């Protein structure tokens, strides 16, 4: 079939057949369809959208364009968790061990961070010796022995997505909700888990800053997962300010450990328990409230922390650094950012905090950028906290002192003071099933 006919059909708002969609993806991955024609198709989808059925077929075709991971060698129900990205989001390091401690298997492939958002793989690689590259046999073995394993995306996973994402990036179609949904879910389907939990962030530090767009994306992804035969739930969660108090790779590992010890900040603990509870619910561990109680119990008794340590040891990491987090990398230079006037913290812009952390060396501008694992920010004050003039709001860490001025300037702009507290922050806005 001719690509021009498929483009014209979608341009005119017609519903594409399964044969047309699968043929298009197969030939594009085989370099039989040029970029300029696929660009026209991406723009047609941007304006005309896709039905749930079209989108599910597109996602499945993208997933099957490469390796489909078979997790049948792992005993039990496998639950995957995906976050759309944010600042200070170390929930995988907390929720996944909680789920594993409750008997759920978590075989997760994660990505690296880019721009102002952090990546789970970067955080884990801040643990001395930790390996995020395992072959399939070792990956499965670690999950069977410890209940969980988190590795980098490897192999030929959804190559159609890699090609299409690069194309969308230069054709102003990145913001298309159907194409975002297909991109995320194609990798989730290819990764092979039985169930999928989606954490869709919204707010200044999220890819989807608007609540309505976040809901639309969540609904699309849940429908794709359901139609593809995977039990799928999405939570729409708050990313107006950084999650927790620590931003930066080794710093976030340290805060995840403190949270697993029961000493974590309220926002991070609340969200991590809720994510873990939904993972347990997907794995048929009981009603949601029962799952919340199970999650809280293994957090309180230290079982979840032991699961994280077991995974780290199995993947070459130093478990002592998770017992004594002072052994984790820490950049040698520090500088405080102090309040210039007194008042309540009325806002702490997540995106600008993430940008400041990146300027210190904790993030990457391109996929080849080298990250400083010990760089980042510790926030001493969050929204609703009272601060006196001259009192520290944050401490910045870097390995290069010359990076401080720009990072300090950006962080200062992230802080807004007010005359009264704003009230308790809502962490989970909606649950989409």
CATH homologous superfamily identity of the largest domain: Nucleoside phosphorylase/phosphoribosyltransferase catalytic domain
Q: Roughly what percent helix?
A: 40-55%
Gyration radius, to the nearest Å? 22 Å
Biggest sheet layout: 4 strands, mixed
CATH uppermost class of the largest domain = Alpha Beta
Oligomer: single chain
Computed structural class:
alpha/beta
Number of domains: 3
Shape descriptor reads globular
Number of helices: 17
CATH topology of the largest domain: Pyrimidine Nucleoside Phosphorylase, Chain A, domain 2
Strand order of the largest sheet: 1-4-5-13
Strand content: 15-25%
String of helices and strands: HHHHEHEHHEHHEHEEHHHHHEEHEEEHEE
pLDDT average, as an integer?
A: 95
Instruction: For the record, give the distance between the C-alpha atoms at the N and C termini, rounded to a whole number.
Output: 37 Å
The overall strand count is 13
Q: Examine the secondary-structure arrangement and name the CATH architecture of the largest domain.
A: 3-Layer(aba) Sandwich
The poorly predicted ranges are: none
Subunit structure: Homodimer.
Keywords: Glycosyltransferase, Transferase
Domain Pyrimidine nucleoside phosphorylase C-terminal: 344-418
Protein name: Pyrimidine-nucleoside phosphorylase
């Amino acid at each position: 079939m001719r690509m021009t006919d498929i483009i014209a059909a979608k341009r005119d708002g017609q519903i594409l057949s399964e044969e047309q969609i699968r043929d298009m993806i197969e030939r594009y991955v085989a370099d039989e369809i040029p970029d300029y024609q696929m660009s026209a198709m991406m723009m047609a989808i941007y304006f005309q959208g896709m039905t749930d059925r079209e989108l599910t077929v597109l996602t499945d075709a993208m997933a099957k364009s490469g390796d489909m991971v078979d997790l049948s060698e792992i005993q039990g129900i496998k639950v995957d968790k995906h976050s759309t990205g944010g600042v200070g989001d170390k929930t995988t390091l907390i929720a996944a061990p909680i789920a594993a401690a409750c008997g759920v298997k978590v075989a997760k492939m994660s990505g690296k961070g880019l721009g102002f958002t952090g990546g789970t793989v970067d955080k884990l690689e801040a643990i001395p010796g930790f390996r995020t590259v395992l072959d399939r046999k070792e990956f499965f073995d670690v999950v069977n022995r410890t209940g969980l394993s988190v590795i980098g995306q490897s192999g030929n996973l959804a190559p159609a997505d890699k090609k299409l994402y690069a194309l969308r990036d230069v054709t102003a179609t990145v913001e298309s909700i159907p194409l975002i949904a297909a991109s995320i879910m194609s990798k989730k389907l290819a990764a092979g888990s039985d169930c999928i939990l989606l954490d869709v962030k919204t707010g200044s530090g999220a890819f989807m800053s608007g609540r309505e767009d976040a809901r639309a994306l969540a609904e699309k992804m849940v429908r794709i997962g359901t139609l593809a035969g995977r039990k799928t739930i999405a939570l729409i969660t708050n990313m107006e300010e950084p999650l927790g108090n620590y931003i930066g790779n080794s710093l976030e590992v340290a805060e995840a450990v403190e949270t697993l010890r029961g000493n974590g900040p309220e926002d991070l603990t609340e969200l991590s328990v809720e994510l873990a509870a939904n993972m347990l619910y997907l794995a048929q561990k009981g009603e949601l409230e029962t799952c919340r109680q199970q999650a809280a119990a293994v957090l309180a008794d230290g079982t979840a922390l032991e699961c994280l340590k077991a995974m780290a040891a199995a993947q070459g990491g130093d478990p002592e650094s998770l017992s004594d987090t002072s052994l984790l990398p820490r950049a040698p230079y520090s500088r405080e950012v102090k309040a210039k006037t007194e008042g309540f913290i009325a806002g702490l812009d997540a995106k600008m905090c993430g940008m400041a952390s990146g300027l210190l060396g904790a993030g990457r501008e391109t996929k080849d950028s080298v990250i400083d694992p010990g760089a980042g920010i510790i926030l001493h004050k969050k929204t609703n906290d009272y601060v006196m003039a001259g009192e520290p709001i944050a401490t910045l860490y870097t390995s290069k002192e010359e990076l401080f001025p720009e990072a300090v300037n950006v962080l200062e702009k992230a802080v807004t003071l007010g005359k009264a507290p704003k009230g308790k922050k809502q962490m989970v806005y909606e649950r989409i099933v």
